[in-house]
Design a protein that fits this description.
The complex is a heterodimer of chains A (109) and B (243).
Chain A: H1 4-29, H2 36-42, H3 45-59, H4 70-86, H5 89-108
Chain B: H1 11-22, H2 26-42, H3 47-57, H4 60-71, H5 76-86, H6 88-101, H7 106-114, H8 118-130, H9 136-164, H10 177-186, H11 193-208, H12 216-239
Helix pairs in contact in B: 1-9, 2-3, 2-4, 2-9, 3-9, 4-5, 6-8, 8-9, 11-12
The chains are: A mainly alpha (109), B mainly alpha (243).
Chain lengths: 109, 243
């Protein structure tokens, strides 16, 4: 059970903090030009941090208690390959989800 | 494929384009929001608290991080710092959107800021780069279009998850909605060697730094990946290696 004071402190603090992060550049910098080095780094932000967030979840999924799992690894690989080949987010998600469900079903039988 | 003839776009057509581009993400947003609702009730939050959590923070990954750490009885400051660290990427999204919509009126930027999430950022930057001739109001219309379905369904599905609570069977493997979504979003972005290098560095460092406490491994991995990507771009530019 989570202590209500902690919960509300976290909710309000995280709400304000997240808004501050989102407003930082868009609100305060506005249309002033930004330096080339900053823009160059920003180009690689999403492409670095999203795979970094996913990697441990693929290799050590919480649902299996951190044990590497064939179905989840295969689903991740299929999602990535389909996404690379067809450049379509939805196709990639559906392929990955299908792979996951089929393999989970096969390994459960 | 860049078109040779300049596209004429109206504010309405920009809105509808955004709506169409955002719609596929519902398949991702809906299970993700539902999952948050389910896990929050399992952690002891009531339906109202769960809904307010989603409405106030509006950042799935940070919400999951905060929830997880609160259940582990981590100190409040650690919970906040870790969840904000996971959410640091929205500051980078904010900066990435600034060249495109930074000239919009302040009140519009303040509202848009709240709605900066992975999906609105990814769709918008991709679209604005593809059609650099769009005006500021057209870009805002596109941005709103992307969010039209995503935002209400984020709230509704959080509430739905909170209400159905623990009744969802584990066999649905909702835990894996996040990895599949993020991988599907990233794959089409890997369009040049520096992008691939940035992603690989992010993955390797993240796995090596998995033992670093409080999700800080993610920040380290993301930062190193970003810097490596930028360096690689300069390296390839200097050598004019075809990419």
């Amino acid at each position: 059970m989570i202590d209500p004071v902690t919960l509300w402190t976290v909710m309000i603090g995280l709400g304000l903090g997240s808004f501050a992060l989102r407003f930082a550049f868009l609100g305060i910098v506005g249309d002033r030009p930004m330096p080339a080095w900053l823009l160059r780094h920003l180009r690689y932000t999403a492409v670095a941090i999203l795979p970094a967030m996913v990697a441990p979840l693929v290799v050590w999924p919480a649902a299996t208690g951190g044990e590497p799992d064939l179905a989840r690894m295969a689903a991740a690989a299929v999602t990535l390959v389909v996404g690379l080949m067809w450049k379509n987010v939805l196709t990639a998600i559906l392929s990955g989800a299908t792979t996951l469900f089929v393999l989970l079903w096969l390994t459960a039988v | 494929m860049p078109s040779t003839t300049p596209k004429t776009r109206t504010r309405a057509s920009a809105y509808w384009k955004g709506l169409a581009d955002g719609a596929p993400f519902l398949l991702v947003v809906m299970p993700f929001a539902t999952l948050f609702g389910v896990l929050a009730t399992e952690a002891g939050l009531n339906v109202l608290e769960t809904l307010l959590f989603s409405a106030m923070v509006f950042a799935g990954a940070a919400q999951f991080t905060a929830l997880q750490l609160m259940q582990e009885n981590a100190p409040t400051l650690v919970v906040l710092a870790s969840a904000l660290a996971v959410n640091l990427r929205v500051a980078m999204y904010s900066a990435a959107l600034t060249p495109w919509i930074g000239a919009a009126p302040l009140w519009q930027r303040a509202i848009a800021a709240y709605f900066i999430v992975d999906q609105s950022y990814a769709c918008s930057v991709m679209q604005f780069e593809k059609e650099p001739g769009m005006t500021i109001p057209q870009r805002m219309a596109y941005f709103i279009g992307v969010l039209t379905f995503i935002v209400p369904l984020w709230y509704i599905c959080t509430g739905f998850g909170a209400v159905v609570g623990t009744q969802i069977p584990d066999s649905w493997a909702l835990d894996f909605a996040l990895p599949i979504t993020f991988l599907a979003m990233v794959a089409p972005m890997l369009r040049s060697a520096p992008h691939v290098i940035a992603a690989l560095v992010g993955i390797v460092v993240s796995l090596l730094a998995a033992g670093v406490p409080y999700s800080l491994g993610l920040i380290i991995a993301g930062t190193l990946g970003m810097i490596t990507g930028a360096r690689a771009e300069q390296w390839f530019e200097a050598r004019k290696v075809p990419r």
